[in-house]
Amino acid sequence: MSDESNRPAESGTSQTTENRPLGFLMDVRLQVSVELGRRRYRISELLSLDQGAILELDKVAGEPLDIRVNDHLIARGEAVVVNDKFGVRLTEIIMNADRMGGLDLMEKSS
To answer: Are 76 and 65 spatial neighbours (Cβ–Cβ below 8 Å)?
Structure first.
């Protein structure tokens, strides 16, 4: 009969990482995309498209663009041109408290 309560805790358990600052994650790369709009199409509709066809989207001209990180909506903004390249000026940051709940993303200064 084994007594699991006498076993030493495994390294990397939630108890040891729970309060660990997450600053080490700051170098992780994430996919950022800017979404003009969405719409569902049937496969038959997509297969009938030719060069020059226009895909109509659900957003009205002038509505803010959605900024997504790893497909999660994090902000909205407006299109701008910077040095002949597209950019996005952030007009709204969407901070979901539940998603960020309790994360210590920066080292605490004492």
So the answer is: yes
**What is the reported pTM?**
0.63
Domain count, the chain: 1
In this structure, are strands 72-82 and 65-69 parallel, antiparallel, or unpaired? antiparallel
Q: What is the DSSP string of 48-102?
A: T--TT-----SSPTTSPEEEEETTEEEEEEEEEEETTEEEEEEEEE---HHHHTT
Q: Residue 66 sits in which domain range?
A: 21-100
Residue 29 lies in a domain: yes
What dihedral angle (degrees, nearest 10) is formed by the CA atoms of 62, 68, 72, 76? -40
Which residues in the chain land under pLDDT 50? Answer: 2, 4-6, 8, 13-15, 107-110
**In CATH, what number is assigned to the domain containing residue 74?**
2.30.330.10
pLDDT reported for residue 105? 52
